[in-house]
Amino acid sequence: xxxxxxxxxxxxCGKSMLSWVVDSVSxxxxxxxxxxxxxxxxxxxxxxxxxxxxxxxxxPLGTGHALLQxxxxxxxxxxxxLIVNGDTPAIRPESFSSLIQQHESSGAFITVMTSHDxxxxxxxxxxxKNDTHYxxxxxxxxxxxxxxxxxxxxxxxxxxxxSELLPAVIDKIPESxxxxxxxxxxxxxxxxxxxxxxxxTIEDPDESIGxxxxxxxxxxxxxxxxxxxxxxxxxxxxxxxxxxxxxxxHIDKDSVIYQNTSLQGDxxxxxGCKIGPNSRLIDSSIGTDCNIFExxxxxxxxENGVNIGPFSHVRHGSHIESGVKIGxxxxxxxxxxxxxxxxxxxxxxxxxxxxxxxxIGAGTITCNFDGKEKHQTIIEDGAFIGSDTKLIAPIRVxxxxxxxxxxxxxxxxxxxxxxxxxxxxxxNKKTSLSSDYGKEGTDSGC
Amino acid sequence: xxxxxxxxxxxxCGKSMLSWVVDSVSxxxxxxxxxxxxxxxxxxxxxxxxxxxxxxxxxPLGTGHALLQxxxxxxxxxxxxLIVNGDTPAIRPESFSSLIQQHESSGAFITVMTSHDxxxxxxxxxxxKNDTHYxxxxxxxxxxxxxxxxxxxxxxxxxxxxSELLPAVIDKIPESxxxxxxxxxxxxxxxxxxxxxxxxTIEDPDESIGxxxxxxxxxxxxxxxxxxxxxxxxxxxxxxxxxxxxxxxHIDKDSVIYQNTSLQGDxxxxxGCKIGPNSRLIDSSIGTDCNIFExxxxxxxxENGVNIGPFSHVRHGSHIESGVKIGxxxxxxxxxxxxxxxxxxxxxxxxxxxxxxxxIGAGTITCNFDGKEKHQTIIEDGAFIGSDTKLIAPIRVxxxxxxxxxxxxxxxxxxxxxxxxxxxxxxNKKTSLSSDYGKEGTDSGC
Amino acid sequence: xxxxxxxxxxxxCGKSMLSWVVDSVSxxxxxxxxxxxxxxxxxxxxxxxxxxxxxxxxxPLGTGHALLQxxxxxxxxxxxxLIVNGDTPAIRPESFSSLIQQHESSGAFITVMTSHDxxxxxxxxxxxKNDTHYxxxxxxxxxxxxxxxxxxxxxxxxxxxxSELLPAVIDKIPESxxxxxxxxxxxxxxxxxxxxxxxxTIEDPDESIGxxxxxxxxxxxxxxxxxxxxxxxxxxxxxxxxxxxxxxxHIDKDSVIYQNTSLQGDxxxxxGCKIGPNSRLIDSSIGTDCNIFExxxxxxxxENGVNIGPFSHVRHGSHIESGVKIGxxxxxxxxxxxxxxxxxxxxxxxxxxxxxxxxIGAGTITCNFDGKEKHQTIIEDGAFIGSDTKLIAPIRVxxxxxxxxxxxxxxxxxxxxxxxxxxxxxxNKKTSLSSDYGKEGTDSGC
Lengths: 446, 446, 446
Known about the structure:
Mean pLDDT of chain A: 93
Oligomer: homotrimer
Strand content of chain A: 25-35%
Number of strands of chain A: 39
C-alpha cells in the first residue's frame, strides 16, 4: 500500500476494510469470528471496536501460515469454517450465505468462491480436471501452469471448509520458494487425498475486489459507496451523485441529498430535508424539513424546519431549535439557539444560550475567551442584538432587550432595556421595538 | 419510488420527468399532446406549466386502462397516435421522429420502439413469429413465455399507432390476473386480427431508461446531464466535469465552467467567463468576462468584467455593474453595486445603492432592519467606507465622503466630508484622500 | 473546437495539449523536437515555455503540407523521425518508445501507431494486402473504401519513419479534392514504391484520443486526470475521487486528498496531511501533518501541523508557521503568521507580521489601505487582539499587549499594555492575562 496505516485499517465509507469483512461474515451468520493478524494490527486502538477474537501471526509467512496460528481453534470446533482474506471488503453477506449453503448441500470438503471477471490481472486461477466439476488446484500468478486462456475462473479469496480433516490438511501445506505457506495449496492437497473441491461463482465482479494498493482501495470505495447510495435511493431518498454517505448514516425518505455532500459518522437526517450541495455533516442529527446548503455541521443537532447556509459552520455541542434561520458566514459553537431565532449573517456564537425569537445582527460576536477560560453568554427570548455587537462573556441579555449597532456590552442588560456604545450604556427603557429608535444605532443587518 | 412526490413530477436537470417526455414529443412534431394522469398528478401546481391537455385516470388500472380514458379523443382524430409511457424521460425527439417516419413508410398498424440493450431486467420482451419481421406479442416480465435467451429485443414503452382501428382494438384489451389492462396486449390483438406490427429499434441504450425507482431516476439524471453538458461542449463552452447545468440555462462560447458548479433555472452566462469551481448560480444573468469562484449567486445580474469570490453570496435582486470586484465572505442582497466598486471582504450590503468607484472596507454592515422594517442605504460615487463601518439605514453617504474604521453612522454624511466614531461625527472636510488621515482611523482593509 | 483559444493550447490538468505531446515525445528520448504550427499558435506567449523549435505553417493545408514545411530539417537529419499529431495528448512516452523500438528492429520504412478501439467514429482506417502484414494505405473517413467492417485497425496519428527516403516521398503527396495534403498518403506512396509499412498497436484505447471538439477535450481530461491520480495512489497518497490534481503537483506519502479538491500549479504537499474536501491549493507549499478543509490557499506556504478551515482564504505571499490554527471565515493576505498563533474566526489579516502565540480575536481587521497605499501591521509575540479590533496600519502591537473588544487602534501599543476604545487608549499595564480584565472589554471570541 506504500502507507504507514496497516492495510486492513484503511477506511472505506466510514469503516475499516477489516470491519467490512467482519461485518459481512457476521451478517452471513458466523457463530464466532477469529482474526489472524500481525502484531502491528492487533496493537491498533481501532481493533478493539471489532467484534472478533484476535490471534497473533508474529511473522508474515503467508495465508497458510496464518491458518496454522489458528490450528488450536480449528481443532476445537466441529462444523464449517469460512476462511476469508481480510482485504476483500466488497463480498456481500448474501454471497457468503450462498457459498455456505452450496457447501453444505454439495458435501464438498472445500468450496472456493470464484469469479469469472478478474479484478486484478494477478488473481489466483482455478484449475480443473478435464473440464469436470473437480477443482485440482489454485494456481498463483507466476506458477508455471498459470494460463488465463485455459481457465478464466479466478479465486476471490474466500473458502468454506469442513472442519474434520482441516487440521491434518493444513499441516501438509508446503513451503514456497519464498519460504511462505499459501492457503491455496490446500486445494491440491485435498485433491490428492480424494477430497472434493467445489466452487461457488459470484456474478457481480465488483465483489471480487482484493485490495493491494491505494488504487485498489479507491476502486473499492467507488463500489461500496455506490452500494450505500443505491440502498438509500431504493428507500425513498433522492441523491444527486456524487455523494459521500458513510455506512453508519441514516436518512429518512423524502429527503434529497444534493451533489458533493458528505454525511459522516453517526449522522441522522429526518424526512423532507434538503442537504447540500457541498455540505458536510458529521455525527449530527437533523430534524424534519431542514435545509442545509454549502455548510459544515459537526457533533450537533437541529430540530425541525431549520435553515442553514450557504457557508455556515455549526460546531460541536450545538442544538438548534425548530424554525431557526442561520444564514451565511455564521459560526455557532457549543450553543443552544432557541426557536425561530434569526442568525442571518457574519456572527460568532460560542458557549451561548439564545432564547426564542432572538434576532442576532450581522457581525455579532460572543467574546467568550479571556485568554484563559471560556465563558457563557445568555440571550433571553425576544432580544434584538444590533449589528456588530460584542458581548463580553460571562453576560446575560434580558428578554426583549436591545443592543445598539457596534456596542461592546460588558455588563448584563436588563429585560426590555436598550444599551448602546462602547462600553454599552442603557439609554432608555422599551418593552417593544419601534421604528424610531433606529437612529440610536440599534439596527441589525438582515 | 417510495416518495411522496408523484413519480412523473420528480426533477431531472431542472424539469420534471413528465416535462422531458412532453417536450420531446412536442419537438418531434406532435400536433397536440394529451396526458392521461392520476388525479394526484393533475392536481399538482406544476402541471399547469406543461403545454398539454389532461385526462383523468381516476383509478390506476394500467396503461391500457389509461388509453381507454382517452378513447373519445382517439376517435375524433384521424392520423397517427404516438403513445409514450410518462416515465421514459430520455427518448430523444429525433428518435420519436424516426419512429413516426418508419411507421408512416411501412404502413404498419403499430410500430413499437425497441432496444437491444435492456435498461432493467424486467422490460417487456418482443416476441416474433419464426424470426420473421412480424411481432406477435410483447411479453411482460413474469409471463410464462418470457425468455430473454430467445428474444433480446425489449419494449421501450413508446408506440406509434394508426388511429382508424385503434378504438376497436383498445376495447379488446383483456383484464389481467391483477385486474389491470395493459397497453402491450394491443400487439397480440392486432396480430390476431392480421394487422402488421413492426418495430423501430433505437441504438443508444440510454434512451430506453424507464424510471421506476429513485435509483433509476439517478441513472436518468446522469444520462440527461451528460446530454446537456455535451451540447454545451460542442457549442464552445469548456466544462470541467462534473457540472450540474439545468436544461433552461444558456452559456456563450469561450466560457469555462469549472468542476462541481451548478447552473440552475433561467441562468445566462456571457462569453469569456470563468464560473466555479463550486459555484452555484440560480436564475441569474452574468455578463462577459466575469469570474465567479466558490460563490452563490441567486436571482441577480452582473454586467461585464465582474469578479466574485471565493466564498461570497449575492442574493436576490442584486445588480452588479461592470468592473466590480467582490472578494471573500461578502453578502449582497437586493442592492446595486456601481461600476468598479470594491467590496473586498466581510461585508453585508442589503437594500443598498452603491455608486461608482466606491470602496467598501472589510466588516462594513448596512444595518437595514430595525426589527420591523427594512430601510435603504445610499452610498454615492467615490465614497470610501472604512473598515467595520455600520451604516444605520435609512441613510445616505455623499460622494467622496469618508467613514472611519469602526464608525457607527447614524446620520447622512455630506459629500466630501469625513466622519468617525460611535455615533459618527464629522471631523474635517476633504475632497480627496490623503495618506495622513489614516491616523484618524479611516482606513479600509483591502 | 468552436473556441477562440488555439486548439493545441487548451489546458488539460495543468498544461496545454501541445505540452502533453511534446513532453511525451521528449520523455521517449527524442533528440530534438520540431513543431510545425500556425502563426496564431506560434505567436502565443505560452509557446515560449515549450522546449521545441517552431516552424511556421502559414496556411492550413493539412498534415502533409505541415510536413513539407519541415522538409529542410528532415533532409539534414539522418535517423528516424517520430511524427505525431499535436492533438493526441494521451499517448504515453512508453508507447512512443515501443513504437520506435519495433520500428528499429523490423526495418520498416514507416511504422504506424494503431489501435483496435476507435476513440471517434471517424478515425483513419488501416488497409492491408490480403490479411498480410503489409499496410497498403490509411483510409480517411469518407474515402470510398473506408469500411470498418473490413478493418477494425485505426490510425492513432503517430508514425515512425526512416529519414533517408522521406523527403522524396513527401514530395509525392497528392493534393486532395479539398486542396489539402495528408500525411496519411505517405503509406500508399511507400507501398507503391515497395517500401515496408508496419504497424505498432497500442492496447489502451484511451491513448488513441484525438481531440477535435471540447467534448473530446473533456474526455481527454478524464483520462489524463485518472492517470495522474493513479500515479499518486500507487505512491502512497490516498485520494477520495474525484480530485483535480495538476501535472506539476507533488504529494508525499501518507497524505489524504479528500473529494473535490483541486491541487494546481506548483503545489507541494508534505506527508501526513489531510487536504479537502472542497479545498483549492494553487502554487502553494504545505508542510507535514497539515489539515486544510474547504479552503482556498494561493501562492503561500505553511509549515508543519497547520490547521485551516473550513471556509478560509489564504492569499498570495503568506507564510503560516508551524502549529498555527486558522478557523473559519479568515482571510490572510501577504502576511506572516507566527508559530502557534490562533486566528479562529472572521478576520482579515493583510500585509501583517504576526508573532508567535498571538491570539487574533473574531472580527479583527487590519485596516491596511488608506485609499492610496497599503501599510504594514506588526503584532508581536504573545499579543492578545480582542474581538473586532481594527488595527490602522502602519502600526505595531508590542509583545503580550492586549486590545479590547471593538477597539480601533490608531497608535502603536507598547509591550505588555492594554488598550481599549475608539480610538484605543491605554488603560493599565499588565504583563500577563488575568480573568478579571474581561470586564474591560478585552475578550476574544474563540
